């Protein structure tokens, strides 16, 4: 993806920490913001990327938000704070926030067994299948190989088929001993949360996070991105030039890579993430459940 989305995160303050001195001062933030235009213009010039969107959140306030460049190379449509981007793997922390809502509500637990929510799911060996927890899939320590299932998606297989076929993949490591990034492992964990409430993942994300946060232009369905008039296209380099050439249809792995959103919406998610699950005085996500999504889980190199 060559129309880039850049989100800069500064300190935020909850009510409990309101009197604590900030790690980064407002003056330091303003000094950094003054350099953003110069940095962004230089980045556009040096890379040829058609456009970038930048936001800064500081102490629970959006102190800078700006689009640069265009949504599609060679066309005049400008990027602004309401331009819809496909977020790729930034979908993962957003989806873990949705799951944190369910954990806080007592619907699921991070350490629930996968087969207790999805009895038909299998890994290659019975022992790993029996012990596999949501946490294992979400932090990529299930023993599935790196990006397992992605090639099946590229060939056009649907979500159900790909998740079923994970059982035929020999493990890349011993269970829980190594990190290996797997979009479909992550997707399976999210679907367990959806199964626990008897809804589709796409509806759960809307009901538990996007709706309550007022993220009106955010979706886990490709069709909503495709139908947005103000949307940034994906680009690839062809003969040295960024070109809007391919369409990325990520519905099969929607929790891991299928969210689309705008800068205005993402700053709302940033604020709830930074402010211990609180947004404008209302606790939308349990603080302890959310904190778990920000905690180290597996050592990598």
Throw out a few tags for this protein.
disordered N terminus, 12% strand, three-stranded mixed beta sheet, alpha+beta, 14 helices, 301 residues, two-stranded antiparallel ribbon
Explain the overall architecture.
The chain has 301 residues and is an alpha+beta fold. The protein has 14 helices and 9 strands. It has helices at 26-33, 36-47, 91-104, 114-117, 126-131, 134-138, 150-154, 159-165, 183-197, 201-213, 222-226, 254-257, 263-274, 287-293, and strands spanning 4-9, 51-58, 61-69, 85-86, 236-238, 241-243, 260-261, 278-279, 282-283. The chain has a 3-stranded mixed sheet with strand order 1-2-3, sandwiched between helices. The longest helix is centred in the middle third of the chain and has 15 residues, at 183-197. It is globular and about 55 Å long. The chain starts with a strand and ends in an 8-residue tail after the last helix. The relative contact order is 0.18.
Low-confidence stretches: 1-12
Percent of residues in beta strands?
A: 5-15%
Based on CA atoms alone, the radius of gyration comes out at: 20 Å
Please summarize the sheet with the most strands: 3 strands, mixed
Helix content range: 25-40%
Please, how many helices? 14
Name the structural class: alpha+beta
The N- and C-terminal alpha carbons lie at a distance of: 26 Å
Number of strands: 9
| Overall mean confidence score, pLDDT | 93
Reading the helices and strands in chain order gives EHHEEEHHHHHHHHHEEHEHEEH
Order of the strands making up the biggest sheet: 1-2-3
């Amino acid at each position: 993806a060559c129309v880039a989305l850049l989100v800069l995160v500064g300190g935020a303050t909850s009510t409990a920490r309101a009197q604590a001195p900030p790690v980064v001062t407002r003056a330091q933030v303003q000094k950094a913001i003054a350099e953003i235009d110069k940095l962004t213009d230089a980045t556009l010039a040096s890379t040829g990327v058609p456009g970038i969107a930048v936001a800064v959140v500081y102490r629970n306030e959006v102190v800078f938000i700006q689009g640069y460049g265009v949504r599609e190379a060679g066309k005049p449509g400008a990027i602004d704070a309401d331009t819809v981007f496909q977020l790729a793997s930034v979908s993962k922390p957003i989806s873990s926030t949705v799951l944190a809502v369910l954990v806080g509500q007592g619907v699921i637990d991070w350490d629930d067994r996968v087969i207790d929510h999805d009895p038909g799911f299998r890994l290659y060996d019975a022992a790993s299948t029996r012990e596999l927890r949501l946490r294992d899939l979400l932090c990529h320590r299930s023993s599935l190989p790196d990006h397992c299932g992605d090639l099946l998606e590229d060939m056009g297989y649907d979500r159900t088929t790909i998740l079923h076929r994970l059982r035929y993949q020999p493990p890349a490591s011993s269970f829980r001993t190594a990190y290996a990034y797997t979009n479909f492992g992550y997707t399976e964990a999210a679907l367990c949360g959806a199964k626990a409430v008897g809804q589709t993942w796409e509806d759960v994300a809307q009901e538990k996070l996007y709706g309550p946060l007022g993220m009106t232009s955010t979706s886990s369905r490709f069709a909503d991105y495709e139908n947005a008039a103000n949307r940034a296209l994906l680009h690839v380099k062809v003969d040295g030039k960024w070109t809007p050439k391919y369409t990325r249809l990520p519905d099969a792995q929607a929790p891991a890579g299928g969210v689309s959103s705008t800068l205005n919406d993402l700053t709302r998610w940033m604020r709830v993430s930074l402010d211990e699950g609180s947004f404008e005085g209302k606790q939308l996500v349990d603080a302890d459940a959310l904190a778990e999504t920000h905690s180290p889980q597996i050592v990598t190199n």
